[in-house]
Each structure stands twice: as structure tokens, then as C-alpha cells.
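Note to self: keep these together.
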Amino acid sequence: QVQLVESGGGLVQPGGSLRLSCVASGSIFSVFHMGWYRQAPGKQRELVADITSTGSTTYADSVKGRFTISRDNAKNTVYLQMNSLKPDDTAVYYCKMYRGYVYWGQGTQVTVSS
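Structure:
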């Protein structure tokens, strides 16, 4: 049984930073691709950043230059470093693990507001 647990969300002022973490259990983490998605109220879930099993990364245009995705296979963890946060970044952020099968975490709320 694969479980993904996100943490690190919270309330931050515009221009601030947060680091999200997602820990995976019950699988061979290193062979899976990992992604961070977000869903704002009334909007569809969208890709924020993705990192393959070999470390290749992809970013949504809206976060390029501000967010960085990384992974630590020894800790079964994927991270999302978010800098220069904007109110438009407010959303529930979800971790996705996939390679054939797809697994989702429960989400962590990020609120950017003054």
C-alpha cells in the first residue's frame, strides 16, 4: 500500500517562501516519477512541477524561476521549494507519484496573503 504524506504548507506573505515535502512509503521510490500539482478554489488541478526518476524536471510557466522541485531517494522524499510567492499561488498542493500506477497525497494548503 503506497502512501504519500505532504507537509510544509501554511500562511505566508507575498514575496515569502515555503518548502513543501512529500514522503512516500510502501514502494521503490527511486523508480517512480514525482510531481507537484495544485488546485485553487473553483479551478482545475494543474501541474506545478515534475521530476522524473532520472532527475529531469519540468515546470509550469507560472512558476519558472521561482519554484524548484527536487528529490532525495534515500529519504523517499520529493520537495518543492517555493520562493517569491504570490497570492495567485494560493491553492491546495498535491504530491503525485506515478509510473503506470498513479498515487496521490492528501494535499497541503498554501495561502499567500498579507
